[in-house]
Amino acid sequence: GGLLTMFKSDPRKQLKKRLKASLRNVALQATKSSVWQQRRDALSFLEQSIKNDKEFKQSQGQALCEWLDENQVIDDLFGERAHATIVSETVPLLLLLDLTEERLSVILDAAFMHVGSVRAEVHKVILNLIKEMNKNRTRFVLDRVMEVFDAHAQDPSGDKAFKASSSGGFKNNSSSSALLSLQRIGANQLQAAFEFVTAMFDTSKLHGLFTTVDVMMKGKKVATRAMDVLVAALLTPFCEDQDAFQKLVQDSLFHCLQSSWGEGDGKGQGKACKEYVAELCCNIVSNPETSPLAVKGAFAVLIEVIRLFPRTNFAQRGDKTREECIHGLQKQFDVLQACLSNLKKLSAGFDKKFMDTDKVLETELWTRLLQLRYLLENCTEKQYNLTLDARQVKMLWEALGGHTEACLRWLRLAADSGGIFEENVQNYLYTEFICRMDTAHLKPHGFNCYQAFFGDVNNNAGVFQAAGRDGQKSGCKINGAAFVGRRVRVLWKDEKMHNGTICTYMPPTNRAPEVQKHTVRWDDTGKEDTHDWTDLHDWHLLEDELSVNILPYEIKSIPNPSSLVGLEFLWSVCFQNADDSVARKAQDVLLDLGRYMDASFKDVIL
Question: Which residues form a coiled coil (predicted)?
Answer without folding.
Answer: none
